[in-house]
Amino acid sequence: MPKVVSRKFNQKTERPSKEKKDEKAAASASAASAASRAFGPLFNKDLGQHILKNPLVAQGIVDKAYLRPTDTVLEIGPGTGNLTVKILEKCKKVVAVEMDPRLAAELQKRVHGTPDQKKLEIMIGDFMKAKLPYFDVCISNTPYQISSVLVFKLLEHRPVFRSSVLMFQREFALRLVAKPGDSLYCRLSVNVQLFAKVEHIMKVGKNNFRPPPQVESSVVRMEPRNPPPPVDFKEWDGLMRILFVRKNKTLSANFKTDSVMEMLETNYKTYCATHDMMMEDQGPGSVDQGRNG
Q1: Any known ligand binding at 223?
Q2: Which of 26, 116, 144, 227 is the most exposed place for a label (fewest CB within 10 A)?
Q3: Least confident of 31-35, 53-57, 216-220, 244-248
Q4: Looking at the record, which segments are called Disordered (predicted)?
């Protein structure tokens, strides 16, 4: 008899494993539904979708862009439009480049039936592959994984635009504005500052985003130099790669590596040949002597 009672008790309290799995799946679905209600459209972190939710920060970014009523603004990654609607208040037109069609649809709904609808053009696609239209100012809550390529695509854009106000991961932003002697001073710092004036505008905590990222953010203002310096960027960047390949070595030590010396010798011979110049007779072993000098 006790065994029967025990058996009946077990039947009532122990649920089949399939039932447990179904309950777990239902709980997971409920949590996902709650997240969807909390965050609106489910954001794709793989695309760096962290929507700026603080209206004061958004207004601060727009204020620092110093927009004019006649400006065309390029916005990269508008998301659901929290920043976009504030930009539209200050300018003539906004061209918003959004990779996610779902968020583009949300943005379109947001301005539908308002005076701003005619001022907004939405380009759906990858910013890095897009042919950019004319614009005066660029504003972006940048997906952090494309920060570097975004900066240089903007700096290569012609005609030269007036300025940009860009949100980046804090460390990346500090590298952009770092000066010689700073611990974060690097090839990125040199390259960007050659072609633009860069200043740090504000720090933005992770709790100002939805969903919050794992890192802190900063906003920088970048003004391209106009006219641009008469420098071939690929050649310049090649030089910077040599200089910053080993930060703890002196410049002369970096230049005296075998690979660099061979490259310099080859380039010098090519330069002389293309300009009908006679190479100086350096004598046998001159390159090796230079390496040891």
Answers
A1: no
A2: 227
A3: 31-35
A4: 1-29
Indicate whether 66 and 205 sit together in one domain.
yes
Q: Which DSSP category does 48 fall into?
A: T
Asked whether residue 126 is marked as a ligand-binding residue, the answer is: yes
Q: What is the pTM of this model?
A: 0.72
Examine the domain organization and report whether 108 and 188 are in the same domain: yes
> What does the alpha-carbon distance between residue 104 and residue 73 come to, in Å, rounded to a whole number?
17
Which residues span the domain enclosing 278? 245-292
Residue 112 labelled as part of a binding site:
no
Residue 23, Cβ neighbours under 10 Å: how many?
Answer: 11
Residue 98 annotated as binding site: yes
Per the CB < 8 A criterion, the answer to whether 174 and 184 are in contact is yes
Percent pLDDT > 90 in the chain is: 59
CA terminus-to-terminus distance, the chain:
99
The pair of structure tokens assigned to 133 is 């239209």
209 and 255 in a single domain? The answer is no
